[in-house]
Amino acid sequence: MATSQVKKKIVVAGGNGFLGTCTGSRICKAAVTRGWEVISISRSGEPKWDSVTSSAAPPPWSTSVQWAKADILNPASYHSLLSSANAVVHSMGILFEADYKGVLTGQVNPITGLQRAFSSTKKGTQNPLSVDKDAQLTPQESDGQLTYEIMNRDSALGLARMANDAGANTFAYISAAAGAPVLPERYIKTKREAEEQIASQFVNMRPVFIRPGMLYDSSRTITLGLAGATAMGAMANSLTGGRLSGLMGAGGTKPLKADVVAEAVVEAVDDDDQKGVIDTAMIESLANTAWRKGML
Q: What pLDDT does residue 183 have?
């Protein structure tokens, strides 16, 4: 296994998040533990800690992270932060669009809201691969909605383009194992489109696509119940030899603790042999490797 002993610099887009942005703050923590230089970029900068951990107090490791404020849709706001980065991680995205959220909260008419949410197509931004390098990426829906096309795909492509220009060796994209019956198909479609274009358009960077299922953590008690239900679904799917995967989507995939995914991301970044799709089994394997190293 080829691993580098040289101190690395990692930039995590969405590094102040928990779920939806998939363990962003935990990726920062795992990288700090290895002695890496770590920069988190997000709209708010340093997290509101009680939104990503069980305490409002900043954890000791957080002082080793540069919590930079930047707009993922405005490359000029973060371009300079990518200088000399070995790896860049896209750890942001959305699970529900505004239409769907509006229906769930009773703020939007259920019929019109779900019709729009489950529409086969929505607009993203202008093509992030063909606009001027530092151009602002602008939502193209008439109401400026942040769609799956924007947050799951175009923001990642824009970041990958800037990372490639900055000379980064590795680009990690936090994807998903599958969609789900309760989610619009565009949720997983846009993630797969991002993976495909990152791999094909930026051949000088090693692509790493992390595909976890449901994430949980004790600091988010609601996720524990959801993880329990998902674990039962995963067990049923396993007993049928995976025949329920198409029907259940991510609901038939083993749920993972947020820290497990974070450790796996950093281990995959550090291991030059890791490339392409990292599924649930490999996520667990990489996390175990990381923990064994930590015990030495």
A: 85
Q: List pLDDT tens digits, range 159-169.
A: 999 999 999 99
Residue with tokens 């980064």, as numbered in its chain: 168
Q: Which residue did the predictor score with more confidence, 125 or 238?
A: 125
Can you give the pLDDT at residue 51? Answer: 73
Closest CA to 253 of 281, 224, 219, 222: 281
From residue 187, alpha-carbon distances to 94, 151, 158, 182, 270 in Å are 8, 10, 18, 10, 29
Q: Give the amino acid at 239.
A: L
**In 3-state terms, what secondary structure has residue 124?**
coil
For residue 75, what are the contacts with CB-CB under 8 A and spacing of at least 6? 133, 134, 135, 137, 158, 159, 161, 162
CA–CA dist 180, 178 (Å, integer): 7
Tell me the C-alpha distance between 95 and 148, whole Å. Answer: 8
Residues 195 and 189: their CA atoms lie apart, in Å, by: 10
User: How is 226-253 classified by DSSP, letter by letter?
Assistant: HHHHHHHHHHHHHHTTTTTHHHHGGGGS
Strands 206-210 and 215-216: unpaired
Question: Bigger pLDDT: 24 or 22?
Answer: 24
pLDDT at residue 248 in the model: 56
Q: How confident is the model at residue 130 (pLDDT cuts 50, 70, 90)?
A: very high
Query: Which CA distances in Å does 261 have to 118, 181, 285?
Result: 29, 23, 10
Distances (CA, A) of 88 to 55, 165, 182, 204, 291: 28, 12, 31, 13, 22
pTM: 0.87
Q: How far apart are CA 269 and CA 278, in angstroms?
A: 11
Task: Please report the beta strands in 43-164, taking only residues with DSSP state E, as ranges in sequence order.
Answer: 65-69, 87-90
Answer for the pair 210, 171: CB distance below 8 angstroms, yes or no: no
Token pair 């505004």 is found at: 98
Instruction: For residue 144, report the phi and psi dihedrals to the nearest 5 degrees.
Output: 75, 20
